[in-house]
Amino acid sequence: MSRNSQRFFTGPHAGVPPSYEMLKEDHEVAVLGAPQISAPVTTTVVNIQPETAVPDHVVWSLFNTLFFNVCCLGFVAFAYSVKSRDRKMVGDVIGAQSYASTAKCLNIWALVLGLLGTIGSIVLLVLVVLPVVYQAITRASPGW
Fold first, then answer.
1. How far lies 137's CA from each of 43, 129, 140, in Å?
2. Which of 7, 34, 67, 142 has its CA 20 to 30 A from that of 44?
3. Residue 47's pLDDT is what?
4. Within a domain: residue 112?
5. Exposed / middle / buried, residue 54 (Cβ in 10 Å: 0-12, 13-18, 19+)
6. Where are the transmembrane segments (predicted)?
7. How far apart are CA 136 and CA 25, in angstroms?
């Protein structure tokens, strides 16, 4: 077998001590030396801003538009929510926060007024309408 022939099997069973490859690499680094660079090293730093989470309240506005649309507050809140989402897509975080804050305020008012209206309607039904209906039924059928 000649010295120039290649081995098909490498590794610990090839007959070469495991430290031979490491010594060979150290020798190559010592002979070649450290890489010589004549040009100055320049670096580029890219600052990536973390995407701020601006809630746009679209789902809440849609809910208020469908169920608690007192004085169209839910619809107006939905419009501001869409504007907030558009500003966020463009990259205008301050504008998105402004529209989101307005949408949140309108949603709160729509929800409070809607709940008060619903509770008021239930109280009116229980305290006024049901007693009148009960009296009308008892007058119509005196045998009960």
1. 90, 12, 5
2. 34
3. 76
4. yes
5. buried
6. 58-80, 108-134
7. 106
CA separation for the pair 34, 20 (Å, rounded): 22
Q: How far apart are CA 75 and CA 53, in angstroms?
A: 23
In a domain, 36, yes or no: no
Domain count, the chain: 1
Instruction: Give the predicted TM-score (pTM) of the model.
Output: 0.58
Buried b (16+ CB within 10 A) or exposed e, 88-118: beeeeeebbbbbbebbbebbebbbebbeeee
Range of the domain at 112: 55-85+96-140
